[in-house]
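hey can u run this one w/ manganese (II) ion bound, need the structure tokens asap thx
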Amino acid sequence: MRSGEVKRRTNETDISVKLSLDGTGKAEIATGVGFFDHMLDLFARHSLIDLAVTVKGDTHIDDHHSVEDAGIALGEAVKQALGDKKGIRRYADVHLPMDETLTRVAVDVSGRPFLVFRTSFKAEKIGTFDTELVREFFQAFAINAGLTLHVETLYGDNAHHIAESCFKGLARALRHALEVDPREGGRVPSTKGAL
Ligand SMILES: [Mn+2]
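ok here u go:
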């Protein structure tokens, strides 16, 4: 089982992440941020990653530190679980529709962190959640997991749908990219021999 466990504590947040890449999508999520719980729950379900996340953060200020630091810890845990990346598919992309919204997510599990995020929201809030935190999460996650990650919402109106399409798209793309490809025969999928 490819698994990762990260504990991360600062003056702003106290975070625990435990995951297994070869899971069934079982989620135990308690971040103190309701909408973010919803996003991580569906991320686990659609990536088939077993995921336990606990965040105790300074949400009396706002949700920024909790969301960003969870992205850092989750990225570190994925990187740890991947190890030398032997046998993985590496590349994947998905178009994820949600009602009127369509988001494209493309990923290269490259070890070269980069985020392109072309998604904007017409509303500043989803309930009490700041929509700009979606990008903060993706940035923290991509950098710390070592992913080249491109997210673009091609069209869409509803902020809840747009956010959800980004998280589900990430999940579905990672599900494929992180999977072991039997044809690779345990090799690292790069002509350089390392990722
Ligand atoms: Mn929803």
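Residues 38, 160, 164 surround manganese (II) ion (CB under 6 Å). anyway lmk if its weird
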